[in-house]
Design goal:
113 residues, mainly alpha
């Protein structure tokens, strides 16, 4: 699964530092999912009397639920950072336009020598 994540990030075209941040943030979750997938395949409940197996399955579901919530929080945090970067870039572009407009206006009001 880690290779799937690395391939998706590589194909996304992100710059190396941002790609590495994503790998660092999400690789552990992929490993946990892989481990629990193996454990889940080993659990087979065929009778209502298999309390230990049912408890283990429940524990696994709750654990994976918590990890999904953590992944979503991490995703939202990273997305928020990207949105802030975009806003900063847009603000810079607006400032550039204002300065350019002011410069052009000042050129029209120069006295002729």
């Amino acid at each position: 699964m880690k290779n799937d994540l690395a391939l998706m990030i590589k194909e996304s075209g992100l710059e190396q530092t941002k790609a590495q941040v994503l790998l660092d943030k999400f690789t552990g979750y992929f490993q946990i999912a892989s481990d629990w997938e193996k454990k889940a395949k080993a659990i087979t409940v065929t009778d209502a009397g298999q309390k230990a197996e049912m408890q283990m399955a429940r524990t696994g579901r709750l654990f994976l639920r918590e990890k999904r919530i953590q992944i979503d929080r991490t995703r939202k945090e990273l997305k928020e950072q990207s949105l802030r970067e975009g806003k900063a870039i847009a603000c810079h572009k607006s400032l550039y336009r204002i300065r350019a407009f002011a410069y052009i206006n000042s050129q029209y009001h120069q006295p002729l020598v």
